[in-house]
Amino acid sequence: MHAEVRDDLDEAWRRASLSGQFIGGEAVENFESKWADYCGTKYCVGVGSGTAALELTLSALGLGRGDEVIVPANTFIATAAAVAAVGARAVFVDVDPSTLLMTAEILKQAITRRTAAVIAVHLYGQPANMDAITRAASSAGIAVVEDAAQAHGACWRGRKAGSLSDAGCFSFYPGKNLGAFGDAGAVVTNDRALAERIRSLSNHGRSHDNPHRHELVGSNHRLDALQAAILSVKLKRLDAWNAGRRRAAAAYAAALAGLPVQLVDTAPDASSCHHLAVVRMSHRDEVRDALAAEQISTGLHYPIPCHRQTPFMTERASALPVVEAAADRILSLPMFPHLTDAQIECVADAIARALSTVARHEALFALRAANATQM
Questions:
Q1: Domain end call among 202, 235, 268
Q2: Which of 73, 80, 87, 196 has its CA 20 to 30 A from that of 212?
Q3: Are 30 and 232 in contact (CB under 8 A)?
Q4: Residue 369, pLDDT above cutoff 70
């Protein structure tokens, strides 16, 4: 990916070093404008990370102690940690078994008089059904925030992730579809007042028209100019890179057909950017070890759900059977824009061999057990 834009990246570095403007300034303003346009929103505020984007948004919405925020339990812990950081309480919910995303029906069942907001997580690159979720939230009078950290360029019914709620929060961690050369993030919104409050909170509470006046108790979550310049360069290739990921996802579906492997479904109205290629299978850990032995890297997103993590063990969480069952079965396969059909076939063949080996071992164990019983 970087080889495609190497010259432009070098030029971005040169301009940043010559300008001497490393915090804020033209490079940040340029990227904010481009990212807002790309997402289809009026405003974008660049911040230091995806986690900061979530925290600042919840704080700017006025959430705090006594408030509850509904969060799907199968997300990176930063989603829930942002809720705790503003003093609110995360209420964890289950997800749809086919997409592993929260639904409006699940949301409705979790809303109480203390519910102030919901964070819809676009997991693995696929947007949740935001039409239904926003209708349910509007009926209850609660705010909707998108955790779009894995959904750069993904769409729901033709509208970009991040533009489907009160505010969309993005991470530009290096491994994302649009990744910086370090930590970076952004919030997009159509609410001018919300954008201004987020910008102020991210910059020590400064007033937008007087840098010496601090109207809020803020902190330092600003976007570096160099990261903004790098993101502007890479944004030009994002759609093409996402197309490469979609092609790879389709190739995986074909290569894995017939194996006892369950892919995460894509809803008919969704266009996933396939940040991750996640499958579910029995004997996940044995298969993963077998792939590693063949130098095929895999990941786990996420093997311990948030409601089972130590900081949140005391939070109220009803039975979440889909999340808990998936946590023991999920496996993230190699996924990047330039993945070749031959590489995908290699992965599929390795999975088939691993599952066959496991099946033989199970059959042998069962035979031995039966023989031992007859003796």
A1: 235
A2: 87
A3: yes
A4: no
Pairwise CA distance, residues 239 & 252, whole Å: 20
pLDDT digit string (tens) for 270-288?
Answer: 999 999 999 999 999 999 9
Half-sphere exposure of 209 (CA within 13 A, CB side): 0
Q: Are residues 218 and 243 in the same domain?
A: no
CB atoms within 10 A of CB 334: 17
Other C-beta atoms lying within 10 Å of the C-beta of residue 5: 16
Domain that holds residue 355: 238-374
CA distances from 164 to 41, 49, 160 (A): 9, 21, 7
Q: 269 and 230 in one domain?
A: no
Would you mind telling me the total number of residues written for the chain in this entry?
A: 375
Full-model pTM = 0.95
Six-digit token pair at 245?
């990921």
Report yes or no: 116 and 166 within 8 Å, Cβ to Cβ: no
CB distance 73 to 93 below 8 Å: yes
SS3 content of the chain, % helix, strand, coil (to 5): 45, 15, 40
Nearest alpha-carbon partner for 134 in 112, 167, 160: 167
Nearest C-alpha neighbor of 188 from the set 151, 142, 157: 151
Distance of CA 108 to the CA centre of its chain: 23
